[in-house]
Design goal:
The protein has one domain: Gcn5-related N-acetyltransferase (GNAT) (Aminopeptidase), CATH 3.40.630.30. Helix content is 29%, strand content 41%. Strands 1-2-3-4-5-7-6 form a 7-stranded mixed β-sheet. It is globular. The relative contact order is 0.15.
């Protein structure tokens, strides 16, 4: 049985390892980058634990948009180990992060996804995200990304 819980500092090394499994070098976060995102004062970090093993996690944050002055959510990363995929774990993590962003005053949430990650794009579309624009050379200075958004 998988349960979601808040991130704890002792989870850090496992989250770093999960991220390195889920993403190729250069797209996976470095130790410094992951610490930065987890250390933001407005960060939301949730862990999916299955029999005391971390099977996935999500990190989200919020910021004030310049033009509208409203809070906007941002899904920084959503990681689920390959063997734990297709069981609703990613959906649970995403939904919980979105609920917490909405409770924090966000009315929209955005994320970036590699253009060649068709499974992730389909997943986000299934959960109500639409593509806003293409971000040229976003990953590894060579791979385009899609900026996707959803109204909460």
């Amino acid at each position: 049985m998988t349960k979601l819980r808040a991130y704890r500092e002792q989870d850090f090394k496992k989250l770093l390892a999960v991220d390195l499994i889920c993403f190729v070098p250069g797209i996976a976060y470095t130790e410094e980058e992951l610490r930065h995102f987890l250390g933001r004062p407005t960060a939301i970090a949730l862990v999916a634990e299955n029999a005391r093993t971390i099977a996935g996690f999500v990190i989200a944050d919020r910021f004030r948009s310049r033009g509208a002055g409203q809070w906007m959510g941002h899904i920084i990363t959503l990681d689920v180990l390959p063997e734990a995929r297709r069981h609703g774990l990613g959906a649970s993590l995403l939904t919980q992060a979105e609920e917490q962003l909405k409770a924090a005053g966000c009315d929209h949430v955005a994320l970036e996804v590699a253009e060649d990650n068709t499974a992730a794009i389909a997943f986000y579309k299934k959960h109500g995200y639409t593509t806003l624009k293409r971000l040229p050379r976003y990953y590894l200075d060579s791979l385009d990304a899609l900026l996707m958004s959803k109204r909460l």
